[in-house]
């Protein structure tokens, strides 16, 4: 429990703290891991961004507000891809901020290998990696 005299944590500091334990990946590494079947890419961007910018082929699309329910291997609403707590999940948002917080939430559910994509979908696209429109 925090005391009233403690300074509130800002989002930049929170991101810095949560990213310490994440083995964040670059776009090319995420692509290679997905191609090799070693990682599940999970796109949490909202529909308007997916419609505007396209999709990563093979990525599982899960809205952010459903993420924990769809990726919990023990959950009754899990996606078929959510096979175990050892699954390497790479969460992708638009620019790589919300995905860090989402990856930490998945780790709290026991998905110890959950991480996120540095720079998000925009970094993926900038790297010239496949995108479906």
Automatic annotation (TrEMBL):
InterPro entries: Rhodanese-like_dom (IPR001763), Rhodanese-like_dom_sf (IPR036873). Gene3D superfamilies: Rhodanese-like domain (3.40.250.10). Residues 35-133 form the Rhodanese domain. SMART domains: RHOD. PROSITE patterns: RHODANESE_3. Pfam families: Rhodanese (PF00581). This is Rhodanese-like domain-containing protein. It comes from Streptomyces lannensis.
């Amino acid at each position: 429990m925090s005391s009233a005299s403690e300074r509130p944590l800002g989002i930049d500091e929170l991101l810095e703290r949560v990213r310490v334990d994440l083995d964040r990946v670059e776009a090319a590494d995420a692509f290679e891991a997905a191609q090799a079947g070693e990682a599940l890419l999970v796109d949490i961007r909202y529909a308007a961004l997916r419609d505007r910018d396209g999709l990563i082929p093979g990525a599982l699309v899960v809205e952010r507000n459903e993420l924990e329910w769809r990726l919990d291997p023990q959950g009754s609403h899990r996606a078929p891809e959510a096979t175990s707590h050892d699954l390497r999940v790479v969460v992708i948002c638009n620019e790589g901020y919300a995905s860090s917080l989402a990856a930490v939430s998945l780790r709290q559910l026991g998905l110890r290998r959950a991480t996120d994509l540095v720079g998000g979908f925009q970094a993926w696209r900038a790297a010239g990696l496949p995108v479906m429109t």
